[in-house]
Amino acid sequence: MLFADIQKHAVAEWDKLRHGSIPGILVGAGTCGRAAGAEAVLAAVRKELKQRNIDAIVIEVGCIGLCYAEPLMDIIKPGRPRICYKKVTPEIAAQLIEDYLVKDNPRPDLALGTIGRNVVDGIPKLFELPMLKSQVRIVLHNCGFIDPTNIDYYIANGGYRGLVRTLDMKPEDVIEEIKRSGLRGRGGAGFPTGQKWEFCRKSPGREKYIICNADEGDPGAFMNRSLLEGDPHSVLEGMIIGAYAIGAQEGYIYCRAEYPLALERLRIALKQAEEYKLLGDNVLDSGFSFHVKIKEGAGAFVCGEETALMASIEGKRGMPRSRPPFPAQSGLWGKPTNINNVETWASAAVIMQKGADWYASYGTEHSKGTKTFSLAGKVVRTGLIEVPFGATMRQIICEIGGGILEGKRFKAVQTGGPSGGCLPADFVDVPIDYDSLTSAGSIMGSGGMIVMDEDTCVVDIARFFLSFTQLESCGKCIPCRWGTKQMLDILEDITNGKGRSGDIELLQELAQSVKDGSLCGLGQTAPNPVLTSIRYFREEYEAHIEEKRCPALVCNALVSYYIDPEKCQGCMICLRSCPAGAIKGGKRMVHVIDQGKCTKCGTCLNVCPPRFGAIVKTSGEQPAVPTEPTPIGNRGKTRGGQQ
Amino acid sequence: MSSASLGSIRETRTDVIGLTINGRQVVAKTGATVLEAALGAGIYIPTLCYDPDLKPYGACRLCVVEIEGMRGLVSSCTTPATEGMVVRTETPNVKQSRRITMELISANYHGDFFARAQNQDCELLKVARYLGIEQNRVDRLRKSTQLLPVDDSHPAFIRDLNKCILCAKCVRACHEIVCHDAIDIAFRGNSARIATFGDKPIVESVCKSCGECIARCPTGALVPKWEKLPATEVETICPYCGVGCSLYLGIRDNKVVSVRGDPDGPANRGSLCVKGRWGYDFLSHPERLTTPLIRIPGVPREAGQDSKVHEVFCEASWDEALELAAKRLLELKQNYGPDSIAALSSAKCTNEDNYVMQKFVRAVLGTNNIDHCARLCHASSVVGGIAAFGQGAMSNSYSDFEKTELFFVIGSNTTECHPIIGSLIKRRVRFDNAKLIVAEPRSIELGEYATIILPHKPGTDVALLNGLMYVIIRDGLEDKKFIRERTEGFEEMRQVIEKYAPEIVEAITGVPKTDIEAAARLFGKAKSACILYGMGITQHTTGTDNVKSIANLLLLTGNIGREGTGFSPLRGQNNVQGACDMGALPNVYPGYQRVDDPAVKKKFETAWGCQLSDRPGLAVTEIADAILKGDVKGLYVMGENPLLSEPNLEHFRQALEKVELLVVQDIFLSETAWLADIVFPAAAFAEKDGTFTNTERRVQRVRQAILPPGEAKPDWEIISALAERMGKGRWERAYQSASQIMEEIASLTPIYGGIRFDRLDRGGLQWPCPDASHPGTPFLYQDSFARGRGKFHAVDYIPPAESISQKYPLVLTTGRILEHWHTGTMSRRANVLSELRPSGAVGMHPSDAARLGLVEGDSIIVTSKRGRLKAPVHITEKSPPGIIFMPFHWREAPANILTNDALDPLAKIPEYKVSAVKVLPQKKKPRRRAAQS
User: Fold this and answer.
1) Which of B692, B697, B776 is nearest to B396 (CA)?
2) Element spanning B463, H or E
């Protein structure tokens, strides 16, 4: 079959959904959607349609990125634009079928926005929403829109055009095009992709491999998962293009087993691509052959490091080795190998579809194109976003993310996951690109972005990230295994009020040695959260060590709870709730907390009626409060009316 | 080295590169790492995970350096040195990084790091002292509180992971050198540690106790339980198998207190196996013989080992004992003639011992009745090899195996019996993609590495080999040029081969014909192949035929006389090659010079100054019958224990009980010595000087490390003393030293012509070494065979002498296990070895066991036509259905009670490998169960 025929067939299929005679119902059923209840919604939809005998196309789509509003459900009613509904429950789903499909009420109150040219009264356009308005969705353009298990939808939306174009070019020219696009590795290090491909292409040897690194392991990062779940063919197309350019005959997708849905969708995609002869022997009759295998990883963070990843594919313990030799010279099974991450491969596909110049028109001078981020933490709207390089933190946090939750103060943002850095609010207007983040002491990483508000203790955050890297260290080299452990021990001491003077300098000294001495990227970057948080928030460390005070009131060992004698109404709620029996008091008595018994669980703070607000959480110096209950009358005022 | 000379070296040599380290110009071999370049130039870089025998690893990070043009600090052990590279090894950043790394080690090292630094001599502490870490800096750090239990499950060594720094040398040695894979790194982060499968105690793992890991541990995490710091070290050769591993015995107070492999040893390159590493406490065992013993008159021979020594023997002075022996031997000679005495020499003894022994027998006793246990292992190799090539020895060398593309292992459980060669094969298959064919009825470890396994029935080797040759000829894969130019007898052989089409061979051997075809093609197409074999080939009534078939296959494919090819009989005992070379055989003088060759006889008569017999003598396996017939009246045994090692033991025991005079010299009161009239206490290998010749024909020096216990003496001294008393003029020379004996050997033995002790100090010499300037011969037959052309033999398949019947429905095959050695005289007196494998058992397939209603450990009675014994059963799939396996090390259950003493007609080797037996559960009444079995 010629590709033109495949395309024709694909467009027809896609039109059946978009402009067909029967309605289409699309439920966001990525892992995030499922976690929010999408499967129940799907079941309800199917049941309702059956009961009402309505003929409709029901499909599962990936994540559009609006995680805060999930589960999402889109309805395409013939003649109407696609409407996206938010926070859909099974009941709402059934209601929508009745109200919209049966009675033709589009329920603007439940809708998030419309997709497409036409409008519906009372419903905004989805892409005019603040979360989406300033995004540029290039890599994610299909996510949440098409059925990821249907190759036709991908093709109808421009998919595999990049491959067809590639096969008409010389491999060297493909590499040139990728170079011209300015694409840099999206896995973290930001190495120019075209150059990397060229190294591998020029490396001597007939057998070569390419690998898709889908071992996304940063806590709070889910860009790759969403992309694989929402648009697996884009990754596959990028890989086939790369294999052609590099001269590889075999490819591996190394995906962690904790991503079962991504794996399932990848397997389907592989099968479909093979059926259309886009993959396998003699791709589209071009004479070029390429096969892809999936390797499930066991969820070791270090296996995101390319040499460890290759060891894992080879069936060995996932441990990195020194470079040189670089994978481009001697990689998988000792053969030249090129590894890129999920987003890089998908970007390569778009670049070949739409051209390097178009792609390079986005971004900054040295960081071209767009980048996806997992926006998480204390922002109003969390989710998966894509912005051009050069966007500022302010745009991302304030516009797309809608600012900080509960109107609190923005304190810092962690980029690059546990390998990245903790940047203070001062950086809010710095344009984000590889180089600016590096010079700030952080890294781009694969795109994790965790927003922290004033209630976050950066020492505790540094401790958290370090505990992660320490646990995930493969243990091979001493600086990483024992250096991070030593740093973690010190941070634990600090957050437990056992910090010693000189610990900050010791941490810095250790951090430098771990960075310098470690074998692989895991160790070399593991101290970043500590180093940046000391750099930007040194006074918080000093408060912990010198004053035994946690300014953010997070470190349990350093906080204490007491009862404001002026506010306590003697209602006994806290006394009854305290699991440690640490509160003494009685009816109409000012309660007191026995600090010796208090486990700092915070229950009293939670149960004290807000109108009283008598429980105070504090750190550092202890306020002078009575040690024994006293009658409320004794404090000089009576509030008999409160009874 | 000055830069001028550097320049000239670099101009003239392409295999070196030049680089600058710390401002100095240095040269290094192409392919060297920066660390190797520095070390080679005498520039020290500290490291704990580097080992020249292992692949670069880069874990300890102490060897970091700065290199111009490279970011940050790089590990010098993993970075290849390149031309023009500029390296700095002691910059402030480097020093700071190393110091912190060492401080981290000390904070995590359990045990008093600084106290050890003053006392002990381990690599970790040497590096720590070099880096100069200070207590006050370490005190800033948080000490690790994680304490892991110490694994002292192994009888030989302790694993204290609290002292482990995860340099992984142990893991890498286990994986890369010995290919056992008993340990690996498990868990992550701070919990990462060396673990066995399932993190069980090491003794429950697949660990083969070779100690390769312990020898390399730089921190004291792996330490031998018994080892002490030696005062001196003596380089010598392992006394166990024929591989000939070179090792250092550490000595303090006349005791062996440590053992380490010799990194320069040509056979082992520093490796040792479980026996070579731990098998030495027999030397100081309280049961060592320390004085001559004379049987108390009237005590019958039947009073065996259950008696007390002093009830059977009385201690005697050397004079008394020698006088008595001389007198009795002379009486026999006078009364019954010289051929009424027979002697057994020993493959455990040195070349010098054996030479003196055979000389004594020939020159003083006047008979050729001398033989030794080579008869029982490789007599067929000698006969078959001489017939085909003119020599019976291994034609190639271990170093040759490094170039072999295809190994064909047949009838050899190499990893158990020749562990160092076993590891070499595994390494070549694992890392160099060499191919391996394994033909073996039992399931053996090498099978896991094999490209093709041919599990043929015991005793069907000729049929299998003929089948392979059938396919090779049919498919035109034979080496026609080689056949034409170097061989004879091809046509006659081909006619026999034609009868062995794969389907016929499948019927005989039980090997699927597709596997026969595949193996034949693999062998036929290999650029270089060698065949390694052991007792599975030789110990058959068709042993000589088997060897000839192997020779046929090699000649057919031209796989002999070239690097990487060859004929590799793996000799069993440490000096079985040497004992044969020395003429401890009934038909040849030293160097395989025939006793019935008049010129040879004349030469030896002149040299020894006496008349010699030209009548070939009796083989070991003929002696028992000769005694029972009354032809042989006296038997002299040096260092052998036929009463466990002979087939059909009961028969042999009857003979020994009947013989008029039995003289035994040994290091222990062996099963045989218990029957002796006179027992001489001999020195063990570590107590004397001499040479051993290993299976690759390498003559190596054995050196005295300790004094013999009590009055024990080297065997050659005992024989010499006896000869002097008996000879009266015919024993002209009293030897002063072993080296003097070797000079005499060299003068009479062309293949040893150039061997002198002072030439053997660097790794020995491989014979033929005809003169003092000859460098030795790594592989034979490069230009021609010893007999001129290689000879094909037309060999037909003949079934084993005994086949299974209704009465005896199972095949018994015997052999060795890794931890023990032959009749156990030494290995069962080595604590570690006997703790690891305290007892033997009969290996049986689960299906056979199920049929007999047996469970693991059940006591069974095994019966053959010749005898019966009781032993526990070990149920294992390693034994195929219908075949049971039994090691012959255990006197409690001597397997040779059952074995068949039917002989190969030419080599006179018995058929140990096939005996028909029946097995019955012990408790049940044998008669009632017989019908079922």
Assistant:
1) B697
2) helix B461-474
Tokens 């005989």 appear where?
Answer: B508
Q: Is B665 helix (H, G, I), strand (E, B) or coil?
A: strand
Coil, helix or strand for B260? strand
Q: Please name which of B12, B10, B11, B769 lies closest in space to residue B20, comparing C-alpha atoms.
A: B10
B190 to A317: CB separation less than 8 angstroms, yes or no = no
The residue type found at B726 is M
Q: Which amino acid is at A427?
A: F
CA distance B406 to B437: 8
**CB pair distance less than 8 Å for A322 and B56:** yes
Tell me the one-letter amino acid at B357.
M
Q: How far apart are CA B683 and CA B704, in angstroms?
A: 10
B494 three-class SS: helix
Mean pLDDT of A570-599: 92
Secondary structure, 3-state, B632-657: CCEEEEECCCHHHHCCCHHHHHHHHH
Query: Which ranges constitute the DSSP H helices of B13-163?
Result: 34-40, 92-108, 113-119, 123-131, 135-138
Weakest-pLDDT range from B117-131, B286-300, B307-321: B117-131
pLDDT at A270 over 80: yes
Contact B192 A474 (CB under 8 A): yes
CA distance linking residue B629 with residue B612, whole number of Å = 25
For residues A390-407, b (16+ Cβ closer than 10 Å) or e, as one string?
bbbbbbbbbbbbbbbbee
Residues β-bridged to residue B258: B250
pLDDT value of residue B893: 84
pTM of the predicted protein model: 0.90
Residue with tokens 């259905």: B881
Burial per residue of A289-310, b for 16 or more beta-carbon CB atoms within 10 angstroms, e otherwise: ebebebbbbeebbbbbbbbbbb
Size of interface A-B (CB pairs under 8 A): 114
Alpha carbons A99 and A41: distance in angstroms, whole number: 16
Query: What residue in A sits closest to B185 (Cα-Cα)?
Result: A317
A513 vs B56: CB contact, 8 Å cut-off? no
**DSSP per-residue codes, B541-598:** TTHHHHHHHHHHHHHHHT-SSSTT-EEEE---BTTHHHHHHTT-SSSEETTTEETT-H
Asked whether the beta carbons of B202 and B195 are under 8 A apart, the reply is: no
Ramachandran quadrant class, A242 (left: phi over 0; alpha: psi -120 to 50; beta: rest): alpha
> Which DSSP string do the residues of A214-252 spell out, in sequence order?
E---STT--HHHHHHHH-HHHHHHHHHHHHHHHT-SEEE
Selecting from B73, B165, B191 the residue whose C-beta is nearest the C-beta of A478 gives: B165
Q: At what angle do helices A171-181 and A193-202 cross, to 10 degrees?
A: 160
Partner residue opposite A481 with nearest CB, options B58, B93, B192: B192
From the number of C-beta atoms within 10 Å of its C-beta (0-12, 13-18, 19+), residue B139 rates as: exposed
The percentage of residues in chain B with a pLDDT greater than 90, rounded to a whole number, is: 77
Separation between Cα atoms, residue B418 and residue B426, nearest integer Å: 12
Contact criterion met (CB < 8 Å) for B166 and A478: yes
Reported confidence tier of residue B930, pLDDT bands at 50, 70, 90 = very low
What distance in Å separates the CA atoms of residue A258 and residue A262, rounded to the nearest whole number?
9
Give the bridge partners for B159, in sequence order. Answer: B151, B222
The residue-averaged pLDDT of A255-277 equals: 96
